[in-house]
Amino acid sequence: MNCDRRVVVSGLGIICPVGNTSHAAWQSLLAGRSGVGRVTHFDAANYACKIAAEVKDFDPLNFIEKKEVKKMGRFIHFAIAASDEAMKMARLDMDCVDRNRVGVHIGSGIGGFDIIEREHSKLIEGGPSKISPFFIPSAIINLAAGQVSMRYGAKGPNEATATACTTSAHSIGDAFKIIQRGAADVMIAGGAEAAITPMGVGGFAAMRALSTRNQEPERASRPWDLQRDGFIIGEGAGILILEDLEHARQRGAPVMAEVVGYGMSADAYHITQPAEDGEGAYQVMLNTLKDAGVSAGKVGYINAHGTSTPIGDRLETIGIKRAFGDNPPPVSSTKSMTGHLLGGAGGLEAGITVLALRDQTLPPTINYENPDPECDLDYVPNAARKVSMNYALTNSFGFGGTNGCLLFRRWDE
Question: Does the annotation count 247 as an active-site position?
Answer without folding.
Answer: no
